[in-house]
C-alpha cells in the first residue's frame, strides 16, 4: 500500500511523541522504584527538558543543510540507545544518562519532523497539515503513558525499557526504506548567518515571543489548576475531569482550526485564542465548583488548544529562506526556556502573595500575547508590508 509523504511524516511523528511521553513516565516511575527522592526525580525531568533547550536550534540548522532523513534517524537511534541503558545497567546513573539521551534524541527528531511537515505542504495547506500534526501529537501523548504503564505492570521496569527502546528504533528501518522520497536539505556552503540576524527580524521575534507565551500559559494552567483544586477541596477525580476537559477542547478546536484560519488568518485566530485564555485565567479563582471549573477549562482549551500548531505554522512561514528548520529549532529552544523560567517566577509570586495573583498575572500575560498577535496581523494588512 502506497503511503503519501505527509502521512509517512505523521507516522514518524506519532512514534516519536508516543515514545517520548512513555519514556518520561517510565524514567520517573523507575527512579521512584529505586527510592529516589522528589528532588532527584525533578532533576531527572529537568535533564530531559534541558537538552531540547540547548540543542534544538543546532538540530534545526542541521535539518536545513542535510534534510530530515538523517536527523530523524539520528534522533531515533539516540533515543533508543538511551532507553536501553536502564535495561543493561539498572540504577539511577543509567536513568540520568537515559534522560539526557532521550532529550537529545527528542530535540533532533521533533525539529526535523516539524520542518518536514512544513516542507511537504503548500502554504495554503499548512493550516490543515499542522493541525493534523498537532492532533497526532495529542493522541500519541495519550497513548504513550498507557504503553509505559501497562508494560511496567505486566513485564517490569527492565523489560519496559527494552520495549520502549524497540519502539524508539522503529523509524530507522522505516526511513531506510522510504526516507529517500523525503525532501532533501538545502545545503549552502559557508552558511554563516547568525541567530542574531534571524532575531533581528521583527516578525520572527514576535512569533517566538507568542509561541513561548502559548506554551507557558498551557503549562501554568496544567500546573496551577490542580493546586487550586486541591486548595478548594476538590477530589482527585474532579481535578482529573477538569484537566480532561481542557484536553478534549484542544482536540475539538484543532479539528476546526483550518476552517477558522481560512476565514480570517493565523494571527487573528491566535489573538482570539489569547483573549479566551485571558478570560479563563481571570475566571478560575472566582469559582469553587468542579462543574464551573470544567466549563472554564473547556473554554481555555478552545482558545489555547490551537496555539501550538498556529505558532508552528507562523514560525515556518516567517523563517528566512532555507532556514525553516533553524527557526523551528529556535522556537523549541525558547519554549523550553519559558518552561524553565516561568514556573520559577510564578512560583515565587504564588509563595509570596497566594494563587489569585498567579492566575491574574497569567491573564495579563495572555492579554499581552493577544495584543502582539493583533498588532502583527494589523501590520501584515498594511499595503507596504
Précis, in short:
The chain has 385 residues and is mainly alpha-helical. The protein has 14 helices and no strands. The chain has helices at 5-33, 38-66, 68-88, 92-119, 126-169, 171-178, 195-199, 202-231, 236-263, 266-283, 290-304, 307-318, 324-353, 355-381.
Give a written overview of the molecule:
There is one protein chain. This protein is mainly α. It has 2 domains: 5-178, MFS general substrate transporter like domains (Growth Hormone, Chain: A); 196-380, MFS general substrate transporter like domains (Growth Hormone, Chain: A). 84% of the residues lie in helices and 0% in strands. It is built from 14 helices and no strands. It has helices at residues 5-33, 38-66, 68-88, 92-119, 126-169, 171-178, 195-199, 202-231, 236-263, 266-283, 290-304, 307-318, 324-353, 355-381. Helix 1 (5-33) packs antiparallel against helix 4 (92-119). The longest helix has 44 residues, at 126-169. The radius of gyration is 21 Å and the shape is globular. The termini are far apart. The relative contact order is 0.14.
Mean pLDDT: 83
**Total discrete domains:** 2
Low-confidence stretches are none
Q: What percentage of amino acids are in beta strands? A: under 5%
CATH superfamily assignment of the largest domain? MFS general substrate transporter like domains
Gyration radius, rounded: 21 Å
